[in-house]
Amino acid sequence: MTIPEIKENLTLATVLNHYNLKPNKNNMLLCPFHDDKTASLQVNPTQNRYKCHACDKKGDVIQFVQDYEKLSKREAILKCATMIGQVITNVPNIAKQEPATITEDKSLFLEKMFLSFRKGLLCSEPAKEYCKGRNLDPEK
Questions:
Q1: CA nearest to 65, candidates 75, 53, 54, 55
Q2: Reported confidence tier of residue 102, pLDDT bands at 50, 70, 90
Q3: What is the 3-state secondary structure (H, E, C) of the chain?
Q4: Global pTM?
Q5: Could you tell me which of 83, 79, 53, 82 has the C-alpha nearest to residue 67?
């Protein structure tokens, strides 16, 4: 399952329900990302996006799971795929199909590529100079 398929098949309402978060009639709720006294997190169920007007956290379903559980992007994607699997198995007509999952091979490949590029950057003086010229810290 690809990331666009996850975003298409997993609604923000499902994610909020999973975490027992209930928006009010104006699609606002207390922001779980900071100490909130009044509802500042706005949910847009038609676009599956959220935005906090106080702490400026915003994003889609994957970003919400990542921020809420403090996960890496990969872990959040896998968690979202699991949520879709739970939703699919609860629908009676589709229960016989296997739940969609993300293959570990693709994730491992991307992690290896990242580490390879990072090592190449740290070993190359021209690459470090390029980063510094762009006001980037090559160590980060």
A1: 75
A2: low
A3: CCHHHHHHHCCHHHHHHHCCCCCCCCCEECCCCCCCCCCCEEEECCCCEEEECCCCCEECHHHHHHHHHCCCHHHHHHHHHHHHHHHHHHCHHHCCCCCCCCCHHHHHHHHHHHHHHHHHHHHCHHHHHHHHHCCCCCCC
A4: 0.60
A5: 79
